[in-house]
Amino acid sequence: MADYKHHPVEKWTKEHIQAWLHETVKVNKDVADKFNKEEVSGEDLICFEKKDLVDMGVAHGPAVRIMSRLKEALSNTASLCKQEIQPTEMHEQTTITSEADASTKAEGPLQRTTIQSAESENIFQNSSVVLTLLLECLDDLVQENFKKFKRYLKEPLLSEFKPIPASHLESNERLDIADAIIKTYGEENALKITTCILQKISQNDMAAKLKKRIDQLKTSTKISNIEEEKEMDQGEKLKNLLTCGASSLGHYSHYIIITNKSDPEQLEHLQFLCKLNLFCVLDFDPNSNINGTCKLYRNSRHANLHFPKNFQGEPSTVIKTLNLYNQTSWVFCNGRLDISSESNRHLDYQSWLRIAHREIEQMVSFIFRREFLPIRRCLVIFLLLSPVESEKDPVFDTFMTFHRQCGGEENIIHICKNQHTFEKWQSVIQKKYEFDIKKQSIYELDLSQINGRIMKLGPHSQHCEKLLPSAGSSFVILPQKIADRMNTLDILCANECDNVKVENESEFQSLKREVEEVFYRGGKVQWLNFYFSEKQRAKPFIKRDKYEDVMKMVTSEIKLPKSKCVLVNLFHHPGCGGTTLAKHVLWDLRNQLRCAVLKDRSSEEQVASQIMDLMKHGRTDESPQTPILLLVDDSEDTEFAEKLRNCIHRKLDETCLSKNERSVNLLVIILNCVCTHFPKDQYKHCETKSQYITASLTKKEQDDFEEKLQELKENHERPENFYSFMIMKSNFDKKYVKNVVCGILKDLDMSTKKAQLLSIMALLNSYIADSDISQSVCEYFLGMQPFHWGKETVLEMMEPYSNLLIKSKGGQYLEYSAIRILHHDIACACLEELDLTYNIKRSDITMNLLHSDLFFKTRLGTFDLILSTQRMLIERQRNVKNERGTQFSVLIEKIHEDEGSQKVKDIFMKATSRYQTVASIPQALARYLYLYDKDFSQALEWAENATKISEKSFTVDTIGQIHKYHLKYRLQQEKEQELPHIPENLDTYLDIAKKATSAFQRAQKLAKTDFEYYADCHLTKDSYSLSANMGVIEIALIVFDMVKSLPFFDQDDPRTRRYFQSFLKISRHIRNVYFEDNLINHKYVKVLNKHEDFLHGLKQQAKTSFEFFDVYFTYLKNRKSEDEFDHFCRKKVSNYFKEYISYSCSEAEGATIGNTIFQESIEIEACEMYLEEQKADTFARLLQHLEYENEETMKKVTTCYAFLHEHSKSRNPKFKTNLILSNIILHLIKPSASCAMKEKDLIHLLKEMMQEIGVHYSFPEPYYLALLLLWPCSTTADTDKNIRIYVNAIRTASRRQLPHILHKRGAISHFMLGKKSGLEKLVPKAKLCGSSDPKESNRLWHTGDIFHLKEIKDQLLRIEGTVERGEVYIDYGDLKIKVNPVNPTNPKSGFSKEKVSFYLGFAMTGPQAYKLKYKNN
Fold first, then answer.
1. Which of 369-378, 845-854, 885-894 has the lowest mean pLDDT?
2. 1185-1198: string of b/e by CB count within 10 Å (b at 16+)?
3. pLDDT, average across residues 1318-1340
């Protein structure tokens, strides 16, 4: 690197400086390495003082030597400058003068003055030249004159110049004095003041010499200006090529670079690559990652290193695997020598053509798929850093591939390192093609000029180190490369927007107006909006009144955190400023918290890992953590945020365990912004911390908007066209919105493409708030031809409707530009205006959308459009206030209400042809036909079509629902028309009931195996499992009601009523039922005989479904804190059970065990009926009695079970399990109850049963009792040696019995381990409420806050155990028993073994650990 001698000091790289220190200054290698490590460049070095060197750790001696040699180096620079700026006298007097004279004659006086002024300014742009001139003068002064010179600097010599403070002139180093002069007066005035002082101290020759040098500089600068004028066309051309004629970058969403081998001296001029939004780089330099362009880029930015073969497969999989759109893909196209393997070797041309060319063709074809990259929004750049000598070069073959895929040369530009390289490249291309690439090429600028021109391009920013808040009010730097790696997060830095660079006040105001206009028209808020509102003389940003509430909600978690990861929700109407409010909170907390907005929610694990990276960045193990505030925006509910919270919680626990950190130092706050039409209702039903805002302004908010409007009028021409702002200012006045829309849609012609596109956007934005249509799709729909730049845009084509539209970013990765209507209220008003004024109905627009092939062809953005359309058609909306959702999507409900059923059917039928592989479309049509049209045969046909597409529980359940509704409809018609009951109808009804039950049973089986989410209202198979079981029950009750109304089952006669109950229980056949001998009865008996098997099985089927619900709601709980649907469903099941009992168990009431009037079999039946009626006949139902605490009922229940155990011939273990549990419950309710069995008798009975069933029993209940009775009271007590076997057995059995619902719901611990002994060690959870308010109690358990309450802690025993490899264990002597940890204290440590303590609960899935606490805390 000895070539530093041929460069001025200010141009030195850090490698130049290291070589200079080693070769010229001859300092130790360690000292030279310090400069390299601190990345000191030439521009930095010339600003150094000796003190700076000492601060770097350089010893005093070497520091003096370095400063001395630096002066010499600067003198050498001056010599170089002299050689460059001393033209010959002839050249000065002829060439330059003649050119100048000619130029002057051609220009007017004003132009000459302007040019001369510009030249004068340009002379002094090079600060190192001015410094060199000053040093030359000062070095020529003897010490006495130097002292005089310094003394004059302390005095006011010229009126316009202030003196330099004496403290700045204490140094005797001439370099320091020269630097002080420049810093005080600037480059030009520094020379002027120096000339003046030289004359004052009688150094006139030196002053004259300095003046001459200044004149020479002016002359040299003029020559340079002439050269720059020649280059100006290329510089402007480069800007236009990169920006599509705009003033800043932004037109092209992505750039693709194809480059070849670089030279080391080129690298410092390739920084512009970091400025461009690179989608991928195709690199033909095999050493690029060692010492080339790739290494340079990765020093500043993150890039993933790939090969062309990686771009193969299904697009969505490739995008996710390679992390495309989020991070640059650097593709090695001809070997990669930093990885030594045969497949990575560099190939000669013929070998490359044979082996690698096909892979590159496939890659280019892949990335230019219609659904991948928009050709017109992606610019391909051939960056030739070395010549392409002939057409037998892989770079040229790659050019041909791109030319073919891009459909021509318009979207390909060429940047060549020099003219020679360009001419060779041009020649190679012209041998193959007729066009000339000259107009698309840059070749007259050298790389340094190219680099400077691109780096100067907007959008109005320059490089600035990003800062993150850290401990003790300090900040740490976040390098861009690290930020790139956190690709799921949009990180808000403490100095966000401080890097905004504008040339002057006018440009600043222009940028401010532009940003404000986008936002107030309806664009999403940018950080710049908040930044500008804080500038001097700016008015504050409007805050909704709930801002303070949300801010307090967040900051309270910082002061008194109750968990390491907390979730707070903000529910808001569409378009009412919810997202803006949330981002404003982030902005105002950016100096205290590390804030980020979630960009990609496809993987909770990845997000959680990057949150941990953000938290740990720049922090030592000893320093405290800075909390994280994460905004999750555009949520539809709280489910994703809750999953993310749990995932982050696990990651935080890992950190605690692996590094022995105190958990109090770790805090992540998730602010979940939920867009909903029912914000207040969801707020009321949400059990985590929440707030809500609605589409209604307070008086203060209205005043704030009025004041803001006056400010906007001062700075904007027509702020009344900022419709999003004006809608809020009008307090969401529907009349105002209607007037705006009516005015713009006046004389609308629906036959035009732009009117049709507007109507489709209005439809989508009305019913799917976050929807848009990609710009690419809009262009194709409007018939716009491919363009390079300078032609019409979509918004221009959409005039006069473009005032209602706004550009946005679409796609999961914001990978494409899109268009949408700027506000939800405007979209709704457009639909109303189209309907009322132009008779364009919603169904018409929907059919037009479904009819247009273009919207369903594969291209960028159509996948999201197709998904939005599907959601619009079938996604139902649940209203938590009404405990149920709509029967169909909001759009379908509206069309049904306004336009009738035929329109709805037409839409669904058209949609089935568009969505041929989506079962939920024909399923929705089937549901519509049976619910609204009562066309059950057609409904059945469409439901069967849905099962052919996908036989899942939700499609088969629909078949059952059709039969059920058909049966209910027939019975209702019979009742309303007062038709006589006839046997033929009963036969038909039972046939229908049989088909319904068969379908429901099939759906029950399928629900155990299919786990995916369905498009309909985000329902999972759990919902359809409930629906199928509910269907079985409903059919049974309908059939029971039909059968009991038969003449020979008269319910008023106790004898015939017993016949009916016996018939249902299969204890009596229909032929044994007494009935009057007449024709009608014989026909009825014949029908019942025909369906006897079905009828006899119906009661047991209903009983099984009731038991399913008992298990579902008793053993398990919803993992979400909200359980409105659970509550609604339980209430419905409870009512059905009462009806069911009235049919089968009414005789049981008042049964007395031991009464001699009963024979033994009758007594057994009476006991069974009593238990069923009291909901005590199953293990799950018995557990519910822990809440009832009815002593008398439990006494009867235990007596019944004791009798059954003694007299029943059945050896079913369920009798024993229920007997044991009923006695445990009775003992806990009434310990002194005389009829309760003793603990030792219960244990004896349990062990007897365990010997009978072994450890492979199918049901978990016996093992659950083993845990309750055999679990030791403390870790020092005697422990049954089989307890670990029973723990393993209950886990296996529960997974066998509950496999299809365990993943969605959490197990309930009905008993906790207390501090007492015997049966009293079992503390029912029902007694541990913590609050009289059920909602508050539920919240306490959900968050774990229940265990902070003293009355709870006093009752429960804290157990000691260990955490190993993320699993929790209890040690009882030689026994190590695994325990399931319960969120939110779920540890997942890698390898750390820690001592812990926790509270123990007993659930049907095994023992559970609550509120883990680490011993070292």
1. 369-378
2. bbeeeeeebbbbbb
3. 84
**748 phi-psi bin (left φ>0, alpha ψ -120 to 50, beta other):** beta
By mean pLDDT, which of 94-108, 132-146, 782-796, 864-878 is the weakest? 94-108
Exposure of 1318 in the CB half-sphere (CA atoms within 13 A): 10
Residue-wise pLDDT tens digits, 70-80 = 877 776 665 55
Whether 250 contacts 243, CB under 8 Å: yes
Residue ranges of alpha helices (H) inside 1065-1157 are: 1079-1090, 1092-1114, 1124-1144
259 to 147, 333, 414: CA distances (angstroms)? 57, 10, 10
Q: Rounded CA gap, 1264 and 1408, in Å?
A: 12
Residue found under tokens 């910082």 = 558
Give the pLDDT confidence score for residue 162 in this predicted structure. 78
Longest Cα–Cα distance of the chain, Å, equals 147
> Predicted confidence band at 231 (pLDDT cuts at 50, 70, 90)?
very low
Distance CA 1127, CA 1113 (A): 10
C-alpha closest to that of 1140 among 1227, 1039, 1209, 1236: 1039
Q: pLDDT, tens digit, for every residue of 112-153?
A: 333 334 444 444 555 567 777 888 888 888 888 888 888 888
> Position of tokens 């960045």?
617
Of 956, 960, 853, residue with least CA distance to 914: 853
Task: Render 335-381 in DSSP notation, one character per residue.
Answer: --TTS-SGGG----HHHHHHHTHHHHHHHHHHHTSTTT--GGGEEEE
Which has the closest alpha carbon to 4: 69, 61, 52, 65? 69
Lowest mean pLDDT among 212-226, 359-373, 790-804: 212-226
Containing 948, the helix (H) or strand (E) segment is: helix 936-949
Sign of CA dihedral 1026, 1029, 1032, 1034: negative
SS3 of 806, please?
strand
**Residue 18: which residues within 8 A CB-CB, separation 6 or more?**
1, 32, 33, 35, 36
Q: CA-to-CA distance for 1226 and 196, rounded, in angstroms?
A: 108
Average model confidence (pLDDT) for the chain? 83
pLDDT computed for residue 1120 by the predictor: 58
Answer yes or no: are the C-beta atoms of 837 and 749 closer than 8 Å. Answer: no
459 burial type by CB count under 10 A (0-12 exposed, 13-18 middle, 19+ buried) = middle
Cα distances from 1038 to residues 355, 939, 999, 1070, 1281, in angstroms, run: 72, 21, 16, 19, 52
Distance CA 288, CA 286 (A): 6
Q: How many C-beta atoms surround the C-beta of residue 227 within 10 A? A: 9
pLDDT at 669 (0 to 100): 94
User: Which residue has tokens 């509704």?
Assistant: 965
Asked if 1370 contacts 1397 with a C-beta cutoff of 8 angstroms, the reply is no
Is the pLDDT confidence value at 619 over 80? no
Q: Give yes or no for a contact between 77 and 9, defined as CB atoms under 8 angstroms apart.
A: yes
Secondary structure (3-state) at 1314: strand
Q: Are strands 1394-1403 and 1406-1414 parallel, antiparallel or unpaired?
A: antiparallel
Strand ranges (DSSP E) for 1203-1357?
Answer: 1305-1307, 1309-1313, 1322-1324
Full 3-state SS string of 550-608: HHHHHHHHHHCCCCCEEEEEEEECCCCCHHHHHHHHHHHCCCCCEEEEECCCCCHHHHH
Give the whole-angstrom CA distance, residue 835 versus residue 845: 10
CA 575 to chain centroid, in Å, comes to: 20
**Is there a cis peptide before residue 786, judged by omega within 30 degrees of 0?**
no
Report yes or no on whether pTM surpasses 0.70.
yes
**258: which strand partners?**
282, 382
Residues 873 and 868: their CA atoms lie apart, in Å, by: 9
Tokens of 869: 């359309």
User: Under DSSP, is residue 1344 helix (H, G, I), strand (E, B) or coil?
Assistant: coil
